[in-house]
Structures are given as structure tokens and as C-alpha cells.
Task: structure prediction
Amino acid sequence: MVELSSGPLLEVDGVTLQYRTKRNLVTACYRIDFEIHRSDRFVILGPSGCGKSTLLKATGGYIAPVEGEIRLNGAVVRRPGPDRMLVFQEFDQLLPWKTVRQNVVFALTASGQLKGREADERAMHYIDKVNLAKFADSYPHTLSGGMKQRVAIARGMAMEPEILLMDEPFAALDALTRVRMQDELLALWEETKFTLMFVTHSIAEAVKVGSRILLLSAHPGQVRAEMNSDGSDPEGPDGMRLSARIEQMLFHEGTPEREAENV
Ligand code: ADP
Ligand code: MG
Result:
């Protein structure tokens, strides 16, 4: 019998990520360390350009570290895989010529995970979870931005990955829809306790969505602090205190340091 390791699910160990352009070398983030455990809602928070998306892509296996290692269940991440599904900010991540249901089914069949009726049943299960059962046969262009993001989330979750990677998935939505989507994501998490790695530049979103928050300094991103935030209502006293603390750290110059903070 295979023994499930009780260690961290994901380890990011001294990771530096760079882009080589024709003219120069851009360091996106520098010697990043953190661990994600099962069922964490792990949020990476930092200003634009600090390397959040790059870090998420590296975890997805799309970019290789120039230094350090990323390990999932102890195995070094070297390429994309169905154990790490990405949800992006853009609304055009769905295939426009496929319906909602077909988009989710396609992810399952193309990856070889499931086929036929099993794929269809799994797809409908997650489409229902994001409250889109009535729209299963609709095409993406007939849906609102929020609905399209729900499809992308259903598609990611249907693959039942070890970890769901979300890159500012609600950033392009209007404020009200954004808050509703955050609530829905938390409700989904309550149901299935999936492991989430969620990138945002919004302090309020980080405080609301995260059970743990990793704060990155500005370009090139370095770990500034790590803190717990379980269940903080961003508008409640604990959430306000945490937000103020984060704000202070983001705008306070100095050497990055890691702090453990409990609210
Ligand atoms: P964030 O998601 O935090 O806004 P990114 O990960 O997108 O930050 O980018 C980090 C840094 O890497 C930025 O300075 C950005 O300009 C640079 N960068 C991102 N993508 C590329 C690329 N394809 N080629 C060169 N530089 C890039
Ligand atoms: Mg980004």
C-alpha cells in the first residue's frame, strides 16, 4: 500500500525565476521559500510585477527555476500535469466553439483522465457545483464574465488536481460580482477542502480568501512575511487589523524578513 506523506504537499525551495530577453535578464522573483499543506488556501500577495504570475506558472510546470526547486509530494516539478490546474484572470480561457459542458468534458478526455459517460458525469457534477447546470449547453460568448470564470473553475476542479492554481481569477470582474465569486469559492472550499494557491494584488481579497498569506516585496519579488488569516472578514476587526499590518509591511522599506503572525 502506498503511504501518503504527512509532509507538505508543495514545497517551493529557494526558487529564483528569470526571463531572458534579447536585451537583458529579468529576475521575476528571488530565492522564494514556502510550503503549502493540504487544504491550505494559500494566497500570494504582492504589488504588480513582483513575480506572482511567474511563480504560479513555475508551480504549474511552465517555467523552470534557475535556482532552487519546486516539489509536489516530494517529486520535483518539471512539466505541467493534471495534478496542478491553472485558472487565469482572462475570460477567454474557454474554447469558444464548445459549450460549457463540452469545455469541461474536453479537459477530462484530452488529458486521458476519463472518457464517455464518466467524463460527462464528472463534468456535470462540477458544473452543478458552480451553479451553472442550467447553462451546461450554452456557449461561452452567451455568458457573463463571472459565469465564464465559474466554468473555468469547474473545469479546473473537475480534474480533481492536487492543487488548484488561480491567478487573479476575479480581477477583471466588477466589484459586486467579485465579492460574490469570493464567497462562492469559499463555499466550494468548505464542501471539498481542496488545496488552493491563489494570487492577488488586492489586500482585501487576500484577507478574505486566504487561510495563509505570503507577502512578496516589489520587483524582484522576495518573501517579506507569511501570516495566517483564517476566516477573517476583511471588514471585521480582525480583518481590518490584518489589512493594516499588511499595508504597513508592503510600504515599509527594509530587508525582507519572515514573520509568523496569528490573528
Ligand atoms: P505579477 O504577476 O506579480 O504582476 P509577473 O510574474 O507577471 O508579475 O512579472 C514579474 C516580472 O517579470 C515583471 O518585471 C515582468 O515585467 C517580467 N516578465 C513577465 N513576463 C515576462 C516575459 N515573458 N518576458 C520578460 N519579462 C517578463
Ligand atoms: Mg500577474
In short: The CA atoms of residues 123 and 227 lie 35 Å apart. Residues 259-263 have pLDDT under 50 and may be disordered. The longest strand covers residues 25-36. The chain is about 35% helix and 25% strand.
